[in-house]
Amino acid sequence: MFRGRYEHTMTDKGRISVPSRFREVLRDKYGEETLIITNFDKCLAAYPVKEWEEIEKKAADLPQFKQEVISFLRYLMGAAVDCPIDGQGRILVPHPLRNHAQVKREVVMIGMLTRFEIWSKELWEEEESKKAYEEFKRSREILAGQGL
Fold first, then answer.
1. Rounded distance, CA 114 to CA 62, Å?
2. For the whole model, what pTM was predicted?
């Protein structure tokens, strides 16, 4: 599982080092060197191929002519890109995805169990400072009723 928060610097060409702990998870659990990266809120989501394929299977079962489904698929699936990990443990984040997440130089990677998020450090700090803790408190009340 992906967990923890890591700060890294993106190169001028758009390469980011995947945290060594995340690379261990990929190697040990998924045995592959490719991630699927897509838009997700104000950040990017990086999925191992196996986890992404599960999302695709579930998405394929959605009613394909409902406007909500069309919008969801356009946003999430339409932006998805294969991003292999190079020999130095880096991924090349395509320019349109960098623009979406406003990722420039400093990035924060957040472990999210079966995926990890890639945030602009500036946006992450803004998100974390203004509402993350309040959302956490509200969410834990809801999740407590579900056995967590």
1. 21
2. 0.91
